[in-house]
């Protein structure tokens, strides 16, 4: 883990006033955003400088962990999209242990902790142990990904609502979910949707979705190795297989990259 | 407009590397978050220091505007939830004018510009004038508001998807939208939903929603004057009228404040 903090000015905590973010014996659940350190909030940047101990997920980028203060205890709890590397109970135990020892505990999750962050079990564990908690929001992957393709999640006269959902759970969807998602102009951001792409395609087509509905997949949103796949519902499973994305990917149903975003700078790869 | 920037270290741009965010002749559409300056991203904080001209909405907080560099031209374009104070065409003209003059143009919107930010007309105007654009994400009000009530937007075994929608447009909803929102466990974040509260209540009850469904309204999320109203679908219009919220409010359908969040620190007002 890189620990070079020479580029962090000591005066960061005074950026927007001298108020401390972290409290001893309290656990702060914070979002690190999708990877670009510049997408950290000032609040979380301060928390990284103040924390005594930081428990972080695998998807929190090295550049962000390098912004932690040099004295902080760093614990990699390795949770991934498809299940924890460290058992959830063990993570909860670590949080309670450190808080009971009076430490300023930072629980750092990628994206925003309130969206597909599996936050509640950890909040409940703290609550059961009478440990105080706070939540520090982060930029969620959908926001960074839609910015990368130059689009809005909502647009007047196109869609007045947007859905955030996870590919893991779409097999439990009811008919009216699919009917709604299949409508023209509907926009949805699917987290962890790579494995479910063919299933989603099948259900949407069954419910009358247009085969030419635009679908965009953004891998590693906001990171240096970000890649964008612009495709259609018809071609989604095939193009996604060809792309062989290994990193975390965000799938937009109903959105194509904006023309201006289709410049070489943004689109590293686009399968026709 | 306060312009005290004495608390901003000159070294902020070097925080995560010396790369400039802003380019001359390019318009950056940026989210300022819901109000707390600490919820700015580092990227937007840098953009405020680099911009030659900043066009900002009424809901961008004074504390955030105080973080702009002292030489920046500040233009209040006054857009609000219920329609622009400056005509949309005029805003577009200003953006193009400043970009054509080779300035680093920052278009600052509250929250996240891609969510109910009316971004597309302004992007299109820049595109038509052959002006380059970029989008800098911000923390959306729903993220800050759900953090304030100690909840997650999604939770395993409760809801695997969440909807973000605007109260303005819910009158155009189809039957299956309402049927879905009316289901137990469903969670939705309604932006600008104060005026539509009675209509929403009526439709949800008509589609079988439980009268005791929790509803939480957060006014001025993340700001010093934040207030939280915890109610039920049954009592929503009455309690909302009693609360007389004047600031921007975010309504959660299907979420109550978490027990731990019901401490006096968080709940300034809770109508029974």
UniProtKB/TrEMBL annotation, chains A, B:
Pathway: Porphyrin-containing compound metabolism; siroheme biosynthesis; precorrin-2 from uroporphyrinogen III: step 1/1. InterPro entries: 4pyrrol_Mease, 4pyrrol_Methylase_sf, 4pyrrole_Mease_sub1, 4pyrrole_Mease_sub2, CobA/CysG_C, Siro_Cobalamin_biosynth. One of its GO terms (biological process) is siroheme biosynthetic process. It comes from the Bacteria. Gene3D superfamilies: Cobalt-precorrin-4 Transmethylase, Domain 1 (3.40.1010.10), Methyltransferase, Cobalt-precorrin-4 Transmethylase, Domain 2 (3.30.950.10). Residues 27-236 form the Tetrapyrrole methylase domain. PANTHER family: S-ADENOSYL-L-METHIONINE-DEPENDENT UROPORPHYRINOGEN III METHYLTRANSFERASE, CHLOROPLASTIC, SIROHEME SYNTHASE-RELATED. Belongs to the precorrin methyltransferase family. This is uroporphyrinogen-III C-methyltransferase. The lineage of its organism: Bacteria, Pseudomonadati, Pseudomonadota, Alphaproteobacteria, Rhodobacterales.
């Amino acid at each position: 883990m890189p620990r070079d903090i020479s580029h962090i000015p000591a005066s960061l905590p005074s950026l927007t006033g001298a108020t401390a973010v972290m409290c001893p014996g309290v656990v702060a659940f914070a979002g690190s955003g999708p990877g670009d350190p510049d997408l950290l909030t000032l609040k979380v940047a301060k928390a990284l400088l103040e924390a005594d101990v930081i428990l972080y997920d695998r998807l929190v980028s090295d550049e962000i962990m390098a912004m932690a203060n040099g004295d902080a205890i760093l614990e990699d709890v390795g949770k991934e999209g498809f299940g924890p590397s460290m058992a959830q109970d063990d993570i909860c135990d670590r949080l309670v242990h450190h808080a009971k020892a009076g430490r300023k505990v930072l629980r750092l999750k990628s994206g925003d902790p309130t969206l597909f962050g599996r936050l509640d079990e950890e909040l409940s564990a703290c609550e059961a142990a009478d440990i105080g908690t706070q939540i520090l929001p982060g930029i969620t992957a959908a926001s960074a990904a839609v910015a990368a393709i130059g689009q809005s999640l909502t647009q007047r006269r196109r869609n007045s609502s947007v859905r955030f959902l996870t590919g893991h759970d779409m097999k439990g969807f009811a008919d009216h979910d699919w009917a709604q998602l299949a409508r023209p102009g509907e926009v949805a951001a699917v987290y962890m949707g790579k494995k479910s792409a063919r299933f989603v395609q099948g259900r949407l087509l069954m419910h009358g979705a247009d085969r030419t509905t635009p679908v965009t997949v953004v891998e590693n949103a906001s990171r240096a190795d970000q890649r964008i796949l612009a495709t259609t519902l018809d071609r989604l499973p095939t193009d996604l297989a060809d792309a062989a994305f290994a990193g975390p990917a965000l799938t937009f149903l109903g959105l194509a990259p904006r023309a201006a975003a289709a410049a070489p700078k943004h689109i590293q790869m686009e399968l026709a």
